[in-house]
Amino acid sequence: MKGQDVAELSEDARAAIRSREICFVFQLPALLPRATALENVELPLVYASVPRPTRRRKAMDALARVGLAARGHHWPNQLSGGEQQRVVIARAMVNDPAIILADEPTGSLDSSTSEEILSLFEYLHRDGRTLVVVTHASEVAGYAQRQITLHDGRVADDQSAARERSRSNAISPDSPP
User: Is 92 in contact with 100 (CB distance < 8 Å)?
Assistant: First the structure.
C-alpha cells in the first residue's frame, strides 16, 4: 500500500490499513438494524476514534453525497432497498479511503440512482481513489477505465477503455458532488 509491501507489516498495521484505507460495498446492504442511517454511516469513524461532532458532520456529508441527507434519522427498515444500499455506499466513503471494493453496488438501485452513484464513483476516481467494481451488468462495467472479464475463475479478457463519455448529469471534476 502506497509503495510498501503489506506482507511485511504486522497484523495490527494491516488491520489499520483495512480500516482506514480500504472500504467495501457489499451486494446486499449490511446495516445494523438498531442504528439509524446516520449511525450506520458513522460506524467506521467510531472505530477510528473520531470525535462525535466531527463524526456527525462527516456522516451527514456522506449521506448528502448519496442523496440521503433527509433520511439520516431513519431506521434501516424504514428505507427502501436502494436507500439502504446508498447508506452502505455513504458508510464506505466516510473515511475517505484510498480503495473502494464494490460487489454489484447498484444491483438494487433504479437506473437513475445507479447513474448518480456511478457518476459519484467516477468523481471519487478522478479525485485519486481506486475503485474495483465487480458486476455482471455491462452498463455498469461501461463506466470503468479498465474491464477484466473472468470465465471459470480465469482472466478471459483485459481491456483498458480510453473513452470519452459526456452525460448531462455527470459530475464535473471541478465540483464535488
Answer: yes
pTM of the model: 0.77
- 177 inside domain: no
Which residues form the domain of 28? 14-160
Query: Closest Cα to residue 42, out of 26, 21, 59, 25?
Result: 59
Q: What is the pLDDT along the chain (177 residues), one digit of tens a residue?
A: 567 788 888 898 888 888 788 888 888 888 999 999 999 999 999 988 899 999 999 999 999 988 899 999 999 999 988 889 889 989 998 988 999 999 988 887 788 888 888 888 888 888 888 999 998 888 888 888 888 888 898 988 888 754 444 333 444 444 444
Does some domain include residue 8?
A: no
CATH number for position 153: 3.40.50.300
Give the residue carrying C-alpha cell 477510528. 48
Alpha-carbon 7 to chain mean position? 25
Residue 4 included in any domain: no
Cell 447508506 appears where?
A: 87
